[in-house]
Amino acid sequence: MIKIAIIGGTGVYDPRILDNVREEQIETPYGVVNYKVGEFRGKAIAFIPRHGTQHSIPPHLINYRANTWAMKKIGVQNIIATTAVGSLNLDMKPGDFVIIDQFLDFTKNRVTTFYEGGERGVAHLDVTEPYCPSLREKLRLSAQKSGIAVHTKGVYVCTEGPRFETPAEINMFAKLGGDLVGMTNVPEVTLAKEAEMCYATVSMVTNFAAGISPQPLTHHEVLETMAANAENIKKLIMECIDIMDTDTDCTCQHALAEYGGFKL
Ligand code: HPA
Q1: How far, in Å, from the CA of 83 to the mean position of ligand 1?
Q2: CA 130 → CA 43, 73, 166, 242, 255, distances in Å?
Q3: pLDDT tens readout for residues 85-98
Q4: CA 195, CA 113: separation in Å to the nearest integer?
Q5: Is ligand 1 within 6 A of the CB of residue 9?
Q6: Which of 12, 18, 11 is nearest to 37 (CA)?
Q7: Distance in Å, CA 240 to ligand 1 centroid
Q8: What is the pLDDT of residue 210?
């Protein structure tokens, strides 16, 4: 059984930490998903590069529901995701890692639920704690053990993209309490919770956001910072997988108990 998945964001396209990697494909009600499966210290791990292996899928066209459904179908209970983010918070600098704990949703055109009425009905997911507190704590411990500095909380603002933001938007997000800005964590986090999986994200600050940064933003700059810190991301994830006990129960795995639980 594959109980752990990694969803790699910008700059994390290859699960080089895994042994015996094979490519797999699965059909879901939302489309076909290609993913890799490998092993790390005896644990089977699935890997999905969120933007495709060649960064060919933009944030607003990612098939979030298919990816989540596929992971649930193969037995995944814990997802560790990575995201590249811009920072609105001067204490969170390029190169820093943040184990985000809240989000502000500024997406516009995405399907954010498996529950659209009809046969599946309607469900109102509680997102008081959108990210699994237990998995976040394991990431914090892993960072500590590996000597990697992390911010243990942060508010992620999710924009629709694919364009970067205007300085006026960044100013507004900062006033609303946002720390970081990215384009992919919503609805990935909420779909994982609807599907009753533990989910946590390590955000990697690649740049100060528009208007805070003295220069115009480039995707190249984002990739460069990701590449410079790829080793630390790998170390953090490896350590976390090592200390993960996939047999323990968690409230995330009963997130829809009120609605009879999530059904594939
Ligand atoms: N804005 C949105 N998404 C991002 C940024 C940014 O500044 N940097 C990396 N991903």
Answers
A1: 9
A2: 26, 21, 27, 23, 10
A3: 999 999 999 999 99
A4: 10
A5: no
A6: 18
A7: 25
A8: 96
